[in-house]
Amino acid sequence: MLLVQPQVRQDFPQGNAHVVESAAPLGECARRAAMGHPVISFENVAYSYGGGELLSDMTLRLAPGSFHFLTGPSGAGKSTFLKLCYAELLPTAGHVSLFDREVRSLGRDDVAHMRRRVGVVHQDCQFLDHLPLAANVTLPLTVSQREIDGGDLGDLLAWVGLKHLADALPPSLSGGERQRAALARAIITDPEVILADEPTGNLDWEMSLRLLTLLVELNRMGKTIVVATHDLNLIRQAKAQIAARVLRISNRRLQLAGADL
Amino acid sequence: MARDFLPQLLRRDRQSDRVVPRSGHTAWLTSFTAGAMTFLAVFALALSMAAGRMADRWSDALARTATVRISAPADQIEMQTRAVLDVLATTPGVESARALSDEEQRKLLEPWFGPDLPVDSLPLPRLVELTEDSAGYDADGLRQRLLAEAPGAVLDDHTRWRRPLAVAAGRLRLLGLVSILLIGGTMAGMITLAAHAALAANAQVIRVLRLVGARDSYIARAFVRRFTLRALAGSAVGALLGMIGIAVLPSADTAGGFLTGLGFTGWGWLLPAALPLLAAVVAFTATRFAAFSRLKELT
């Protein structure tokens, strides 16, 4: 069992010129940080699939504003761990809480509402191929029936370097463009937590660094970040810039691996 | 659910309409099914209404009337006819009675034997038509009196064959209504299958929508609205074609049979015109049920 409680950041930056301005999140993060409430917590969590236990006895509290890398060999359960974090999967044992609410107690509408507070960058990006990039990026706003500000969207697409591809369909995008578009979609609702599953898996080093820079900027704005990755160089690069912690899944259990890197 | 029907149907959200891609075969299958079923429903409705009218007409035409048939040798027929009329004139409950003329009898037989039937030379029974008053008469007592006064007279009070006809017409009307229910049920089943197919084909779309925070009601609405509008459009075409088909049938006045009486009159034309709305309600309910049951299977 491992208890991870990274230091709560005290130095939330005051925004970034490239990022869509938002009203609530910084205040919410600061409030949660002040109260010491984790945004995501696992208590003795296990997950079994097909008769075998994939994850076992995981205890973890992710503080608001923290930055974590999640590593481990292929098939170790990194994606499963992230899916437990946004309630796509339910633990077979133990308790997972999102924003202080036990996921098993959430109704389907509650889960939908929670997911608006968690931006996810999936390994395979998962776009709606019949919609142009801009519509895919604004999808979280569309489904929550919130207004889409064209100026903010333009700023966001410019921030991830995709403004010129706003009308392109996802199948025509390169791997790096898709990953950046997925990041833009993940943050357009100004979520408190961003989960990224192998976001640099298909990218070259230069593009990986660019994506890392975006994630670091978001963390400096107070977002809680969890990145599942194999890329140790990327982790070292990040640790040079921020106080990132490294979690490792090994033998179905979670370990703090920061000292090894 | 009923209160959601009109708002969901009328409120167009261009963004949410786009999130589900337009799928080919389920689109035309829904429209075609709704159109074909509504076309059949128009005819079932026309059949039901025609049967209803026929039952009413038979009841009205035959109600409170009866016939006395007098079969007697030629030299006694006039005497027995007078005796029957005398008996009827003194029977409580009989409002009026009269013997049919040869011309009237010829017209009665004309559909079977043609217009040139020599009634005078045939040993046809004489018919006396009576109309009862509101109190009615005692049929058994009248038969006894007729037997005593005119041995060749037989009272036919019509109920013997009117009742089965009226029952048959009523059953026909019921069959028409049952047909409409079956057609509606079949349409609901077909649209449910089409909706399930569309939901299965768009499983990945639904998964993405769920992952970015879409509620089930939002996802369902995108499908429900589309299927409802498709059913409404298909059904409107089917209803229009059915009404045209009914309108071009020969009228009852010129041909005078049951089938030619198949149709609508006056306000009755509003009923087939309302079928598309009914189809839309069926499609709305079926798709909504299919969508929510399918979505509950997904995380």
TrEMBL record, chain B:
Q: Which GO terms describe its cellular component?
A: cell division site; membrane
Q: Membrane-spanning residues where?
A: 27-47, 165-184, 190-209, 229-249, 269-291
One GO BP annotation is: cell division
Q: Which UniProt keywords apply?
A: Cell cycle, Cell division, Membrane, Transmembrane, Transmembrane helix
Q: According to the UniProt entry, where is the signal peptide?
A: none
Q: What is this protein called?
A: Cell division protein FtsX
